[in-house]
What we know:
Blueprint: E1 53-58, H1 60-66, H2 70-73, E2 84-91, E3 94-95, H3 98-110, E4 114-119, H4 143-157, E5 162-165, H5 176-182, H6 187-210, E6 215-220, E7 243-247, H7 262-273, E8 280-284, H8 290-303, E9 307-311, H9 322-338, E10 347-350, H10 362-367, E11 372-375, E12 384-387, H11 397-406, E13 410-414, H12 415-418, E14 427-435, E15 438-441, E16 444-447, E17 452-458, E18 462-467, E19 471-479, E20 482-487, E21 491-492, E22 495-497, E23 503-505, H13 510-513, H14 515-524, H15 531-537
Parallel strand pairs: 1-2, 1-9, 2-4, 4-5, 5-6, 6-7, 7-8, 8-9, 10-11, 10-12, 12-13, 13-20
Antiparallel strand pairs: 2-3, 14-17, 15-16, 15-18, 17-21, 18-19, 19-20, 22-23
Amino acid sequence: MKREEDDSFIARLSYDSDNLRQLGKVPISVPEDPYISSFISFSGEKVNPEKFFYSLFFTAFDVRDYGGKIEKFIKIFTPLNLKKVYLETYRDGFLVDKNLILDTKKILEKKGFKVSGAITTTHLSDKNQFNEILSPASCYTDKIARKRLKEIFELTAAIFNEIIIDDWYFTLCRCSYCQKQKGKKEWYEFRCKLLYDVAKKYIIEPSRKVNKKVKLILKLPQWYEDFHKSGYDLNKLIYIFDEVAVGTETRDYKVQRYMPVHGALLFKYIKNLIPDKVKKVWFDIYICDEKIFSEQAYQSVLGGAEEIILFCAGVLPQKNNRTIVENLIKNTDKIERLSGFSKIFSIPILRKANTEGDYKLHQYFLMMGIPVYLTDNINFKEKIVILTAQSEIEKNYKKLFLKLINNKKNIVMTINFAKVIKNYFKVKKIENPIKINTVNYNKKEAEVKDNIFINEEIINGKSVALFNNAYNLVSFFKIRESIIWVINFPFTTDTINTPEGNKESADYRYLLHNKIMAEVIRDIFRNFANVNLYEKIKTLYRYEI
């Protein structure tokens, strides 16, 4: 593939310049940007947060281009008071000269920085044409790719005592050999097992054979609801690494499906799965303005992060990005102060790994001012819990429900969960979807301007709020000693325009456009959480969604 033929999401983020640096193979895993020739420091007073610190990531191309000038280059970042630097050895078919890596590491350590290694596992072989979409992600059934993977980790482990793996350790390959090995398994089952086995045999074992002290860190992307589809298995894979870093890059909500609060939600979720192994977050500056970039840091720290890895050295000082980074420097003290509210999350949403349904819903509870957190622990201490289609595999919905009832827990559930438990909840299919025009609650009526519809309704329980003054939005039930609320979230035909030029669902944005609808749901939780306080501190900035 020629570079001009790379029409991937990453390539579309490249700078509009005639002076772009040469990168690796296409499709690329990092956008192209101009060479930085001016090493002027960011403006702002040097920050010194006590609860977290900033680190800086150098891609393999950053090391190649700035490693030889590292003493001057690193001064650009002085106000961020960096404590640590990650030097990448390999990305997109390019392997950095070993002597350059060693020299750069030595200079940085002499200047007082902790220095770790990094690897991006893209273009390990030339089979990208078999990927489901245009992507640099590798094929891990390929013998050449496995051999290359092992060699890269052996080389890097011989230099560093800590290595972080960028969030391209997944696969989308459907080559004939992958299809043959998959057999009768589902694609997600095959890929989860494949990446687990490859990680053990070609990453962890060879790295530790070279360096017994080496610590291996897996960085996860932000799209947790789709992890299993490409091999990220939250049931097994994350447990074999020494640490896991969490991607909290939400970027601009106007053109992305992630809300500003998503970073805190995801970090707490992964930390709840493996508490002792999750301390780091990682985000970039792509599709960010001054507010969103600082928001990513705030959500990371509000979620409990202790280290913020900024991606990356060759991008942050670009002319268009300098004021964005300087705003983060300016906001750091405020972010530090507000991080004291990190324990405010007190409403559990149960989520079982590798499940699907009620897509993108979790984050909207936070956006409505409800301090939820994701967990797989059914032995939570709180008196109330939220159940969605992702809370269990469908055949176990009833078992989970009865266990919670036996434990005298109050439950808020989506209609997608409720309709499976037919003994208690009566859900009727609507033949032709009904457009929602009004919401009725507490003798108030609000007009709905979004294009939202329902195709099923709750026909038992006590009505709490109505759509079109006829169909239940929320139904109330008393079962033994538990109070149950069932919510019928409509679906929407509204869309957002993405940077790739695609149209994607607007998801549940309608909840933020209609105060009455949000009020209905928020009122359920007022006796169980400090809803008023969380509403004030949920985001660093206020947004018109």
